[in-house]
Amino acid sequence: MQPDPPPTIDLDNGATTRPDPAIMAALLDRQATLYANPSARHARGRAAAEALETARGRLAGLIGGAPAGLIFTGGGTEALGLALLGAPGGSGRVAISAVEHASVREAAGALVERRGWALDVIPVDAAGRVQPEALTAHIGPETRAVAIMLGQNEVGGVNDIARLAPVVRRAAPRARLVVDAVQALGKIPIDVAALDVDCLAMTAHKLHGPRGIGALWSRAPLEPLLRGGGQEGGRRGGTQSAPLALAFAEAAERALAERGHLAAMRDRLWGGIRAAVPGARLTGPPCGPGRLPHNLHLCVPGLPGEPLLNLLDVAGVYASAGSACRRGRFSPTLAAMGHTADEGAWIRLTTGRFTTPAEVDAAVERFADAVRRLRRLCGPAR
Amino acid sequence: MSDPDEALLMARVGELWLKGRNRDHFVRALHDNLQTALSAALSHVQVMAGRGRLYVGVGRAEDVPRALAICADVPGLVDVARVERCPPTLDAIEAAALALVEARWAGATGSFAIDGRRTQKTLPFSSSDLNRRVGAAVLAATGLRVDLSRPDRTLSVEVGPRRAHLWTAACPGAGGLPVGTAGGALLMLSGGIDSPVAGYLAQKRGCRLEAVYFHSPPFVGEATRAKVQALARRLAARQGRLTLHVAPFTDPQLAIRDHCDRRMAVLLYRRMMYRIADRLAGRRGLDALCTGEMLGQVASQTMANLTLVDAVCDRLVLRPLLTHDKQESVALARRIGTYETSILPHDDCCALFLPDHPVTRGTAPLMRGQESRIDVDALVEQAAQGVESVEIEP
Question: What value of ipTM does the predicted structure carry?
């Protein structure tokens, strides 16, 4: 007989989040009623188009952008791909920060391979953030696109885009500034005008919304990646989903309104772990305005990472080694910050809107227990 | 067979006829394996034994392609075809042949041949009578030429004392022997490419498999165990169900790490695995172990090192891939549908706690010396006792 597994505690909200039941109920309802093709001319189609535009306006309003700039996509990866690969042709350079998500790294790689662009990688500081001096040194008049993420997905650093944008304008006047806000949307206030960004990528599933919808806000010209139908102002072909778009807007609004909870739970978690696991070190910027409110990334020195994650998995605590999109290799983000794999176990714990104080306390206990067990297993021989 | 929707498949059995007195046993096993494989996917399928053949009644004609594909994957069959049947007279056969040709060869161009045979010489016509009669009718009814040496298509007719069977296309079967007729083997299943292929090849030569997977939590994650289960499920399809034994392997590995020369860890791990598998096979009444090892593929699979693992186990060790190349194994893995699962990332417990420069060649005295530092028997017994067995359904 196996004992019952412990109730699971989801601290992997940086990978994805549990859909909000209220938003899902409304979504399901609208899937049944608001299903018409928004391009159709009849009454039902017009109703779907109106709902789609409402969603567009609400989401654009949330980031202070013009609704016409907002393009619905299948998700964050597509939004980033559109911002970079959709840049009009010609030769040039693309500069990306050293801690960008794989979707940006690989899109930039495609610009190099297919269009012969040159790639510049902007180094980050020890907290994983881009500093103006480093940016200046890696962009120039040839630079056509600069990608710097707003909130870093692994270590949670928030880049000061408002300070970096003027550097881009000055040093690389032809460049579009592409900002990955997939982790940041709903976690910190965003104002595209104040930040002076050209393209901002977002997704719904990271903030308790549905999977399968994201958006790119852009004021830069774009060549569509998907053609056929001329939807989204000719920038993204394919029938839109008004129900998904509304659910996305609602999820983002709700996330932003309740974001205080994320930091409260994260701080409780870090406080608990710091007390229970001597030696555990925070990676990235200190908890505060320079860090995404749901993100905790830490290193337990002297222990291997995968086994700690495995023990947490068996104990019902969902965590991750960093980005869920990579496995088996050391994180390029941590490497760019000057870290190595043998420093210890690198673990990312990310809170969500449904994380409770009781869960956090139980997770701290299980985490400490897993560390103790692994220390015993790794023993003096290690 | 009165329902017009019902279809009949005819499967020809392979080497079974070489097996003398075992023949009934082999045919029965094949019958049961076919029925199990078909019933797992389709309803209204009935396997029936005939003279030198197995027949499959398929209740719904639209299930025929699926049923043919399933039959083609069951070891022990040479080929399988959808057949029509009729009384064993030339008139009836001619009518059936014309109906079949009209259905299957409508609009076809090129050449054809008739491959007519009698299973008994007591019929009132010869095989050449049969071929001439059917051939002339088909020639007149279609625009096709006759070409007996390299025909584009063939109509086969087999006439027995009570019935004739006709078909136009046969799918090649998997060949080999029915699963279960060669005894039971314990497959050492890792998450990699080779071990599932080795299991498939052993099944194809008639082995009924159980599998053992060595699990080293927390150094190896649950995702790897889930991956092994997915691979076991693919193998289970060929034999109805498969018992997967998950053997706890953390303690033997830690003992080796802490007390032995780590440069020899891989060989020591493998000797422990073989001992545990051997004990488990004995308990389960299995005659052999089966592994995915390939001669010289990695340092632990040299002749010298294979000798070192064979030395700790009493049983026959089947190594179906021993002389294959990696590319051959990959091609087979793709064919049996395990490749996509095998290449998912997984943890390999043999890679744990290794120094930078492992010893690639061991000797028996060296191994015994290292093993004297740990309680081999107790560790083997403890692992064998701790085995968790899961029944895997296809």
Answer: 0.77
